[in-house]
Amino acid sequence: EEMRKTASIRRQSMVTELNGKLTDYFTMLDTLGKGYGNVKKAHLKGSPGLVRAVKTIRKKPGDMRTNKAFQMETFALRSLDHPNICRLYNVLETETSLHLVMEFIDGHSLFEEIK
Question: pTM above 0.90?
Fold first, then answer.
């Protein structure tokens, strides 16, 4: 109930769809984490002070359930704007991967926080 009161819905149009290659837009840096996707730190080309976290998820050809889960995560991130949720800025989808360009939050991981 409390979450509903404090979370606000932002317009889907605030998330930009990118076309082409990820490296057309970003200089990829260190790996920040791995899970079902890899997360890397990235600088926006032409604006090295603008840092983002880029989560790259490999699509699984023929695995409709997993690919649907990716779409649901993207939809959820596009829809929410809350101080405790990383903001999604851009989405770039290729034949083999889904790249989510998100807010970079410096510090330790969520896993380290909940230990």
Answer: no
Q: Nearest-CA neighbor of 11 among 73, 72, 98, 87? A: 87
Q: What pLDDT shows up at residue 43? A: 95
Q: Give the 3-state secondary structure of residue 28.
A: strand
Could you tell me where the DSSP H helices lie in 52-105? Answer: 64-79
- Contact criterion met (CB below 8 Å) for 92 and 22: yes
Sequence-distant (6+) residues with CB within 8 A of 44 are 25, 26, 50, 51, 52
The Cα 87–Cα 42 span in angstroms is 15
